Amino acid sequence: MNHKHKPILFTVALFLVGCLVACSGGKDGAPPQGAPLGAGDLSVTLNRAALSGYTLEASFTVVNRGNEDLLLDPKTGFGAKAAAEEREIPLELDLAACQGSLLQGTVPAGGELTGDLCWKADPTGALPETATITYGTAASISLWEVEAE
């Protein structure tokens, strides 16, 4: 087993929430987009997020302040939900929908990795109006909220 890479144990999920956040700041304690959130040697920044049509695209920067490389896998630890008319709408990870580079691979020790993650809703269902991106572990969860364009 290669001990140089450790899987990153963090979660980014989208949940139904009643408030919305502009890029400049959050409501009810939610951090603004662009604010780094940390957990140990790891910090994650939501650079931008857009909910357009049935697609949510988010760009993140992950910084590794530790002494070991960290391995990012977009298929583990990420989930998505959105809302329309007070109903929850499931979103599925859809990396093919991303237009930029993907958030996957190795975050080198003392380095950073920037990339996108995308989710899509069923196009035959309701059009998503809001989404909330959460990051963290069960002990500490932070969130960013996104309004449809």
What's the short story on this structure?
This protein is an all-beta fold.
Commentary on this structure:
With 149 residues, the protein is mostly beta strands. The protein has a single domain (9-77, 96-147), classed as Immunoglobulin-like (Sandwich). It has no helices and 13 strands. Strands 2, 7, 8, 12 and 13 form a 5-stranded antiparallel β-sheet that branches. The chain has a 5-stranded antiparallel β-sheet with strand order 3-4-5-11-9, with no helix packed on it. A hairpin with a 2-residue loop joins strand 7 (81-84) and strand 8. The model is unreliable at 5-28 (pLDDT under 50).
Portion of residues in beta strands equals over 45%
Average pLDDT, to the nearest integer? 75
Question: What's the CATH topology name?
Answer: Immunoglobulin-like
* Helix share bin: under 10%
Q: Any idea how many domains? A: 1
Number of strands: 13
Unreliable segments of 5+ consecutive residues: 5-28
| Order of H and E elements | EEEEEEEEEEEEE
Specify the oligomeric state: single chain
Main β sheet profile: 5 strands, antiparallel
Distance between the termini: 45 Å
| Helix count from the secondary structure assignment | 0
Give the structural class.
Answer: mainly beta
Second-tier CATH architecture: Sandwich
Instruction: Give me the Rg, rounded.
Output: 15 Å
- The level 1 CATH classification is Mainly Beta
Task: Reconstruct the topology from this structure.
Layout: E1 5-7, E2 11-14, E3 37-39, E4 42-52, E5 55-64, E6 69-72, E7 81-84, E8 87-90, E9 92-93, E10 105-107, E11 112-120, E12 130-137, E13 140-147
Parallel strand pairs: 1-6
Antiparallel strand pairs: 2-12, 3-4, 4-5, 5-11, 6-10, 7-8, 7-12, 9-11, 12-13
